[in-house]
Design a protein that fits this description.
The protein has 283 residues and is α/β, with parallel strands linked by helices. Helices cover 39% and strands 16% of the residues. It has a domain at 3-146 and 180-199: NAD(P)-binding Rossmann-like Domain (Rossmann fold, 3-Layer(aba) Sandwich), CATH 3.40.50.720. The protein is built from nine helices and eleven strands. The protein binds NADP nicotinamide-adenine-dinucleotide phosphate.
Length: 283
């Protein structure tokens, strides 16, 4: 039986990945800094290792007897005082060093679709630096580059509930967001796949206007969309960069950037945004 270590199990993607590895017959160890955040996963988890990727001492032995290491560790919404370089880069490097020590057979890392085109963004720079380290490590690896997650599209549902949606430019930039369950399948398949760079998005390519129309339809309201010129977005990001720290502007800059370019990845999966919005419209 193959043994996997999952880092990031408490996150929106990691939860699906834990269940998917278990479904494929893996023995599952998860790394968590707060085991209480693993609620509802107990049936899929064989062992919990309590540790913190930013503290090397706490990681000793985390990869012992492990075949595959999976990491979706990264800062998405800032909750503490750590930087992207502390977590996305150094935290994952610390984990990778443990993996090397134990001679694991493969490291699977989750980055961001189009990362190579967004190297000016702080969050992406830290990820890219880790990717370089992983590639040079001598370990076998796969890097998954996913498009936006369905869970992040809930902001559109919230706008629809409030009666007005906002898009950048004409709203015709395209994206194919992916459900965590579909993305988890891709990540688990990577364990026994030779592909090293896996770009992936969901099955439906939608404009931001389309996404808002689906959101309004899901809550039974008439679609109302306001269009924000791209220069306003650039101005907001520019001002935030002058007056706030990367902790504040980093995530905002990232989301504003991906909303104002085409993000079309190879399509995969069976989940559709309309169903996801209907399931979550009361949340
Ligand atoms: N969301 C998207 O649309 C999207 C799209 C493409 C790629 N991605 C990338 O995919 C990865 C996973 O995304 P996600 O939505 O699953 O993120 P998430 O829900 O924020 O989960 C992130 C995971 O990283 C851990 N983490 C964060 N800061 C940490 C720290 N200081 N020390 C230890 N662990 C820490 C979290 O642990 P705790 O629970 O303990 O905080 C959690 O398990 C991220 O790198 C993200 O950039 C996301």
């Amino acid at each position: 039986m193959q043994k996997v270590l999952i880092a990031g199990a408490t996150g929106s993607l990691g939860r699906y990945v834990v269940q998917e590895f278990k479904k494929h017959g893996f023995w599952v160890r998860v790394l968590a800094r707060d085991a209480a955040r693993l609620e509802n996963l107990s049936e899929s988890v064989d062992e919990i290792f309590t540790g913190e990727v930013t503290n090397t001492n706490s990681l000793s032995g985390v990869c012992k007897d492990i075949d595959i290491v999976f990491s979706s560790i990264g800062i998405t919404k800032q909750k503490d005082n750590l930087t992207y370089m502390d977590v996305d880069y150094q935290g994952n490097m610390n984990l990778m060093e443990e993996a090397k020590k134990e001679g694991i057979s493969k490291f699977i890392y989750v980055s961001v679709f189009n990362a190579k085109k967004m190297k000016n963004l702080k969050g992406i720079q830290a990820k890219a630096r880790f990717e370089e380290g992983l590639i040079k490590s001598g370990l076998d690896y796969s890097i998954v580059y996913p498009n936006g997650f369905f869970s992040d599209m809930l902001d559109y549902l919230q706008m629809a509930k409030k009666g007005r949606g906002y898009v950048f430019g004409s709203g015709e930039f395209r994206i194919n967001p992916i459900h965590g369950e579909d993305l988890a399948e891709v990540c688990v398949n990577a364990a026994n796949d030779e592909e090293r760079e896996i770009n992936v998005g969901g099955p439906d390519i939608l404009t931001h206007n389309n996404i808002l129309a689906i959101a309004f339809d899901s809550v039974g309201k008439t679609t109302k969309i306001s269009k924000i010129p791209i220069w306003v977005k650039n101005l907001i990001v520019g001002i935030l960069k002058i007056f706030t720290s990367v902790k504040i502007y980093g995530p905002i800059e990232f989301f504003m950037t991906v909303l104002a370019i085409d993000m079309v990845a190879p399509t995969y999966g069976k989940h559709h945004l309309k169903d996801f919005f209907l399931e979550n419209k009361e949340a």
